[in-house]
Specification:
single chain; about 50 residues; mainly alpha; 1 helix; transport; CF(0)
């Protein structure tokens, strides 16, 4: 059906945009928060070792 083609392309386009946004946000999250979490975990481990 020719009428279905534009809808399919739109859905594909939206799908790819969603993946791109998720990928960028995950990258941003990992860059900004992952080191903080790692440091926090290290501090936790150090305090556990002290005890």
């Amino acid at each position: 059906m020719p009428q279905m083609a534009p809808l399919m392309w739109t859905l594909l386009f939206l799908f790819f945009i969603t993946i791109l946004i998720v990928f960028i946000s995950m990258n941003f999250f990992l860059k900004n928060y992952f080191p903080k979490i790692k440091n926090f975990m290290k501090k936790k481990q150090l305090s556990n070792w002290k005890w």
